[in-house]
Amino acid sequence: MMRQPKVGSAQSSPTLPTPAQGVRWTTPIVETPGIVVLTSWIWRLVRFLLTLPFRFPVMVACLVASAGAWWWLGWPGLAGLWGAAAVVSLVWWRTWPDSYRTWVTLRLLAWWRHVAVYRRHWQPVLVISGLAESYQERRYLPRIRRVSCNAWADYVRVSLVAGTAPADFEHRVTELAHGFAAPSCRVVVNGPRDITLEFPRRDTLAEPLNALPIIDAPDLDALPVGQREDGSPWLLRLHGTHVLVVGVTGAGKGSVIWSTVRAMLPALADGTAQVWAIDPKRMELAYGRDLFAHYADTGESAVALLEKAVTDMQERAERYAGKQRSHVPTTADPFVVVLLDEVAFLTAYHPDRDVRRRAENAIATLTSQGRSVGFAVLAALQDPRKEVMNLRNLFPDKVALRLDEASQVDMVLGEGARERGAEAHLIDPTLPGVAYVRVEDSPSPVRVRATYVSDEDITAMAEGYGVGSWKAE
Ligand SMILES: Nc1ncnc2c1ncn2[C@@H]1O[C@H](COP(=O)(O)OP(=O)(O)O)[C@@H](O)[C@H]1O
Ligand SMILES: [Mg+2]
Predict the structure, then answer these.
(1) What atom in ligand 1 is closest to the CA of residue 256?
(2) Closest by Cα among 203, 62, 181 to 113
(3) Considering every ligand atom, which ligand is closest to the CA of 259?
(4) Rg for the chain (alpha carbons), in Å?
(5) What is the pLDDT of residues 62-98, one digit of tens each?
(6) How far, in Å, from the CA of 139 to the mean position of ligand 1?
(7) How many Cα atoms are found within 13 Å in the side-chain-facing hemisphere of 394?
(8) Where are the alpha helices (H) located in 16-119, listed in sequence order?
(9) Counting ligands in written order, which one lies closest to the CA of residue 341?
(10) Separation CA 263–CA 240 (nearest Å)
């Protein structure tokens, strides 16, 4: 809570004189002089008029222009001005009907949403969510500066009250989203005491997304693997990092894995990148075996593969030492993605203790040393608890698909992620592939959905781009 109510009364204050025995104490009434009240009212009026052009610039400009035309040119001037404005909007409407309609619709919508939703529910929602006190003066209520709309969301720009911070809003995003009947809420900080609340009007990720077209020259720093809630592409960085994908069974871990492999296909085909796949459940990756440079599905072979990756990585690191600081993918030194589905099968559930220990050691070595020499680990995991996967923190980037419990959100995305709106435990089970991720341009986690790469897509990918070298082993 930001401010405390003004507690204390005449009876409880220790500094007030104690009334003498038998004398009734009354609080002295001091009236504010009339001149002070009057000055205060005049000051408020002047301030209102002075700030009006900043709050409603278009309206004030129209009024001033109309008054000016009438003052200097009389009624014909005013009619001329309005006629010209009508002609301009007519020309706009006839020439670019779509842009005109969109502009007008979005303005009207913004006005309507401002009046009917945000202004109407502002104080109750803020009070009940604990962002304002119910009995305080209105000037201690954060103020709505502007509401604007685009095709999918409302943007409410808010002036904060002095002494509060954007984090106060970030910690109440769930309450705000429910309060304004939006599927979610995100806080964007514009500057001191100036934030924008983003409220989607509908869930743009409700429909499954088809696999994306294959790009000829993939950027391994920004692979398109799905869509963000705002409609922009979800770009996953793989080169120079390691990615851990966490979610319960059926959350869609496979779709993140396959969307990533699909985005890399041309690099796999020309030999500048390789995927080394480990599939302990023999379910997920078997379909696309031909795409992988190496493939393992038993505990022993998986550990051998991981240890081979470690040896190759260390050999490369030795060659680079003192000569090359970062990795550039070539056919001689390809970018190697070690792809591990259900990693806990190896590190926690495998019956052979030696396999578990060796797998864990190899993963720890790869994740801690592989980034700058072109080795990345992309691992999928069901249960993020420490005893199952204590290598979690070696993965710089994480994807939180649907999780079992609220407490797991921060385990995956880092402390404070849940408070900032990453409600991975509340993801609808009917929306597999929906996840929360941290992206570079936003402090708050972003809601995304991976594309759905069907079995037919995978078969076609293997036919078109397969390297098939795993067969040689
Ligand atoms: N991105 C997605 N979009 C739509 N449906 C999906 C998506 N990902 C998964 N699914 C559906 O959910 C099912 C389970 O997904 P899967 O990737 O096997 O989950 P996991 O590997 O997390 O257990 C799939 O068979 C598919 O029907
Ligand atoms: Mg799976």
Answers:
(1) 1
(2) 181
(3) 1
(4) 31
(5) 999 999 999 998 999 999 999 999 999 899 889 988 8
(6) 50
(7) 20
(8) 34-55, 57-95, 97-113
(9) 2
(10) 17
List C-alpha distances in Å: 309 to 154, 238, 378, 464: 48, 17, 13, 26
Which ligand 1 atom minimizes the distance to the CA of 283? 18
CATH number at residue 456: 3.40.50.300
Per-residue pLDDT tens digits for 133-182: 876 666 788 999 999 998 889 999 999 988 889 989 988 988 999 999 99
Element at 434 (helix H, strand E): strand 434-437
Indicate the residue among 202, 234, 249 that finishes a domain: 202
Based on the domain organization, do 195 and 230 belong to the same domain? no
Provide the 8-state DSSP code for 114. I
* Residue 402 maps to a domain: yes
Residues 6+ apart with CB under 8 A from 360: 346, 347, 391
Q: How far is the CA of 454 from the centre of ligand 1 (A)?
A: 9
Q: Ligand 1: which residues within 6 Å by Cβ?
A: 208, 247, 249-255, 432-433, 449-450, 452
Q: How many domains does the chain have?
A: 2
Structure token pair of residue 112: 């309507």
Paired strand residues for 338: 276, 377
Same domain, yes or no: 234 and 183: no
pTM of the model: 0.77
380 CA to middle of ligand 1, Å?
13
Same domain, 193 and 264: no
Separation of CA 450 and ligand 1 centre (Å): 9
441: amino acid identity, one letter: D
